[in-house]
Every structure is written in C-alpha cells, then in structure tokens.
Amino acid sequence: MTTNPGLQSISDLTASTRLTTGDIPPPLVGSSTTVIGTRLYLFAGRLVSSRRMTNELYELDLETYVWTKFQDANQKAPKARYFHSANQYKNSIVFFGGMGYSRTSNDGLCVLDDVSIFDLDTYIWKHPEITPSSSSPRPRYAHLAAVTANKLVVVGGQDMSNSYIEEINVLDLDELTWTSSRPFEKHCGAYRSVAVRSLRGSNIVRSFSTKRVQSSNNSYYRLSYTTNVTEENPNPIYLYSNYNFTDVKRELQVIAPPTTSNYQIMDHSSNMTGAFLPPGLRFPTGAILGHHLIISGTYLTNTSQTFSIWALNLANLVWTRIDTGSCFSQGSWNRGVLCEETNKYFVLGHRDRSLVDDYNHRQTNFDHVTVVDLEAFGVYQPPPATMSTNAQELGLALLNDTNLADFEIVTQDDQRIPVNSQLLSQRWPHFKALTIKNSEDEEQILMYNNRALEFPEPYSVTLAFLQYLYTDHLLTAQQHQPQILAQLLLLADMYDLDRLRQLTSHSLHQSLGMSTAALIYETAALSRQTGLQIRALKVMIHAKKMLQQQQ
Question: In terms of Cα–Cα distance, which of 378, 364, 262, 359 is closest to 313?
Fold first, then answer.
C-alpha cells in the first residue's frame, strides 16, 4: 500500500532524533531505566562486548541529552546483575532481583531476591536486611514490578531453569517486610509483558469529554483533570501481556492496590478494541500518561523490523497507533520511556545500527534518543484541579458581587466590569506590576487614580478571562466556546500564564473537530503549542481527504 506523502510528512513532525553526549553507556543487555522528573537513571546490565555484568549507574538529563556516570566512591552499589527491576518510591529507586554471579553454581550464575535502594537526595545506596517469611518471593529475573501507595508489587519472572514463576509478592516499602504472596497463573516476564501504574491520577471514570454539570441552578462544564495520588487512594497497576506472535494474543489485567491480602485482579482482556490492534511487541515497555496506557517495543516479522508505539485509552479500552512517520524506519531503537512532565516519549537506540542484529543479542544502545510528542496524538497529562467545585463556584460569586469591587476593567467595546484589585494583583502578575503606586509612568498613575484599566478585548473574552482569574479554572459555558478559548490561549501566551495555557490547550483538544480545526491550528501556531497545532493540522488534512472522496 502506498503511503500518502502528505500524511507521512505530518507524522514526521511528531518526532525528532537527538545525539546524546557525555559519559555515554556502552551497549547493554538487561539494564533498567527509571525516569524521575526530567532525569533518566540507568542501572546495571550485561556488557555486550565482554558479556560481563556491571553494577554501574548512569543519569541522562532529558533536557540536555547529557549522560553522567555516577562514581561510587564508597563501593556500596549492589552486586552486578541484569534483568532486574527498578521502580521509583518517593525520591529513591528500589531495585529487586535479577540474575547475577554465583560462587557455587557450575555456570557461575544465580538468580537474586535482594532489595537495594538508591537515595536520590544523598546519592547513597541502602541494602536493607529483610527478614524471610512465608510471603518472601522466590529468587527470579526478567520479572515485572510496580509501586502503588507504599507497596512494591513483584509479578512473575523466571527462575534459574527459565521456568515461569506464577506468583505475585508484595513488599511494604515503609516497614521493609514482605506482606503477601499469592498464586497468579500467568506467564509474565520482561520478554512479553509490562506492569505500570500512574504517578498521578486522572478522573477517567467521568470520561475524557467535557461534561455539563448542573449545580446551584447554574450550568458548569467539567473537564477531566489530574488528581493527587495518596496512600489512602492509590492507583491500580495495569498488567499488559502479548504472546504467540504468529497469532497475537493480548491480555490486560488490572491489579487493585494491595492494601489487604485479598486485593482484586480484574481481567479486561476481552474488552480491548480498536480499528487496529497492537502487533506482538518483544521486550515491551510502558507507562501511563493521563488516561492512556502507552505500550512500546520491538516489532519483528519477515517483512517489517521496527520499533512500535501504541496507546490504549483507559476510559473505553480502545487502541490507537502512535504514528511517528519514518523516524524508526532505520536504525536500532530498543527501549521507550515516558517523561510525564513534558508529555514526551523518549526512545533510546542507535540510528546507524541494525535492529535485527541488536535484537538477536538483546542489545540496548544509548547513543541516540528519539523524542516523540505524545500531545500531538491527544495523549497528555491533564492539568490538575487546584480547588474544589464549591470553591470555584464561590470564586464566580465573588466576581458577581459588586460590593467587593474597588476597581474596574474597561473592555474594548466600552463595558465596565467591577473587580477586586487585590485579588487580581495576587493572580495576574501583569496587573500587579501596573498598579504599583510609586510608578513614574504617567499612564500607570492615571490608571491607578481612575481605578480602571482598559483591556484590549471585547466583553465576552474579558469576562471569561476574569472568571479564570477568580476560579483558577475554566468552568462556564462562556469560557468553553472555541472562539473564547482561542483568545484565552493567546492571552495566556501574552501574559505568560502557564496555568491558563494548560487549561485552554486541554479544552481546545476536547473541542477539536472538523469545524474548529482551522481556528485551533492558527491559535496553537501563534501561541507555540506545537502538539495541539500538529493534531489540528491532522484533522484538517483528514477533513480535506473526506471532502475529496465525496466529490
């Protein structure tokens, strides 16, 4: 099938490849990668060149693409290993298991069951002595692990004879005790499965569309938003597996937070749908961003050898392919990781090597990074809710109460809106700068004395802007009109209001359709919202294609 060159070029806009510098790690097998903030931490693995295992730790700055090797002066690093697990807990990384060296076995190898913790505040290794119990895990490698609340959940893996271990074990990371063990009759391991949970929550239960809510005799709009995850309200773990690659089988289990020993495991394998489904991905990696589960891995057939990325909408369990154009068509791309703070997916590899050769050696390269803008596909972390619904409604009530006003905003069409100057000064830095009493600018002095500010927007846009300042949210019908949203995004860019920029961009993503695509494209271009701009452009091209087919 011939690829449309126009669509191909649009897909190419969503990804770019960068060369890494600094202490670039050598090619490794079975190393672990953990992203915390905008830093990636790489630990251990087996050197491809000498087949020797290491216990070295590296850090990659995901903004500068510079690698730094940690110098372990006190020699407290864990023993060398590969195919272990590494998970963030608070500001530390918890490592478990893997395969390492043995002094007693004939082949010099053994599987491990130890726990080590690297403290990112002090850069000190800790090796807790955990008392064995009936809940302790068997030694294993190539297993899966994820942290929810204060629990490390270890799933599956293989033993020294390469048999799958069909159990789930839970470690309390505060008490450092293994609290539960239960059978899990699935073959789960690094070759075919991935276990992830979100660092933040998203109210996906309400669906990801704008909803109108009746409250206090008024009509308000509620967008999906990011919620805080607490130990009292932790996130579940999503376990995705694919196997039998000639006739791919896909499974999805959701493991409830193991706050008790009888936590639930729900099977949603039969609920996954989509116009297209992911192919068999080898050594998959994954993450959760907003209300999407991101899965990536190596896709190998007789006719195709590439790195593939897919997104599962957790609100409706529909799969979508992340089409990055030609960026993975050449080179060896080996592992994907998510930087949640930037809505970017980073794929490590080497653009001049052979994917098939490196896969046959299980080799991961770290010389290049391809950066994929997931927002261009509508996959991103929604902005958080900063106050309750009642507090937002109270903010609107304050705006409508003229008794609390001591200042006026004069709109472009010469209408006056009473406001509280102290509130505006706290939430709008530009206004605060204009109302400084000792200003030498005659225009500012006149504005302050007249207790009025001329605002270069019509009443509808000005009111929507003030409603945001009073509530820190977008919740009125007025604010969610596409034309108003477009102007609010431009104001956010003009006054450098990052919160308003996030909210308006989020709402415009939900408003994006054939009738609004041109407006959103132009606004996103003017306000430098690249992901939103590319997504709007895709809709415009799709609309044009549909019109051509109808003619």
Answer: 378
